[in-house]
Amino acid sequence: MMVTTVVGSYPTGIKVQTEEDVKKAIEIAVADQEKAGVSIISDGQVRTDMVGIFAMNMPGYRKEGNRYKVVGRIEVPDKPATVNDYLFTKKLAKAKVKGIITGPTTMAKTSQVEKSSPYKSNTDPELIYDIAYAQAAEARALAQAGADIIQIDEPFFSVDADLEVGIKAVNIITKNIETPAMHVCGDIRPIFKKLLETNMAILDHEFAKSKNLEAMDKGLIEAHGKIIGYGCIDTTSNTIETVDQAEKTIRAGIEKIGKKNMWIDPDCGMRMRTRDAAYQKLANMVEAVRRIG
């Protein structure tokens, strides 16, 4: 059976304000993912948003309102941001647990750069590389905690990013990862060949509603030794795909990518969905994979 996984975030219905809330939310995320039959799970990314969890741990960042501001040089934090949540998840779970890190380009482009910092703008390569070195330390800590699969989230790679800088930055992080994966959502057709140049073992993209399948080439994927994380579940809606619909989407991918070259997951994180919808979407996805065998 093909590997099934998630992109990251999961809706738990818990308003997280305390460490006890975090634990309760992780317990729900783990229980739902395992009940659905997912083979590689996450901690649900329940603590806060994908930028804030790292930015608020890095020297050089400050939060004002809903904005993350770079006010000084970004430095390697004294302690990792996600290892405690990873270890708690690992303790609860029977399934394999992956670590998840937000990529340097995405962190930079969602930040506001202040004049007090040494950076020219939020696209300054120096800023992106400094964030990469900070996130490389996070990856090392996750690996030491037992995470052999660590995913780097770079949604902004598909939104007019400097890929020369961006790829160099994520490759700084992958040096510390046994099985590095990268999630890039959006339209990756213009950049897919460039993404094949990264040091990733797994490239994860959305296919449920996009035209990204047009960019897939089995021979090219195999020549670069990549696995494609194949998003087959729409995460923009609470409408639940039937098992038949999920199976049809997966089989379309098998035709162009090859079954052995695919891991199966939703298109993106599920934070914005209801808990009931998120669970049933995952359960139907796993059942579709079981049917295919």
From TrEMBL:
Residues 16-289 form the Cobalamin-independent methionine synthase MetE C-terminal/archaeal domain. Gene3D superfamilies: 3.20.20.210. Keywords: Metal-binding, Methyltransferase, Transferase, Zinc. It holds the Pfam family Meth_synt_2. Its cofactor is Zn(2+). InterPro entries: Met_Synth_C/arc (IPR002629), UROD/MetE-like_sf (IPR038071). One of its GO terms (molecular function) is zinc ion binding. One of its GO terms (biological process) is methylation. NCBIfam families: PRK00957.1 (NF002119). This is Methylcobalamin:homocysteine methyltransferase.
